[in-house]
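Handout, section B. The chain below has 80 residues.
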Amino acid sequence: MRLVSESAHLREWETAPSATGWTSARWSLLLALAAISFFLVATQPNLPAQLGALVSTTTVAVSTLRRGLDALGRSAKTSE
């Protein structure tokens, strides 16, 4: 009986008291992100190029780091 009452209490506690539940908050965050992105792309003409360069640089850095660590791992295994 105690488990049933605790379950009911938990269900009541988890229920959003108004329309501002997680679903509506998620949509609000998504719309705000879209509006900010549109504003930045419209007002900063070279922002997409800078973001592309950042992604490209990060990709090269990560792949170089992985190759270096892989080479160090192989050399450590061959020296044993």
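Note. The first helix runs from residue 2 to 14. Compare this with the example in section A.
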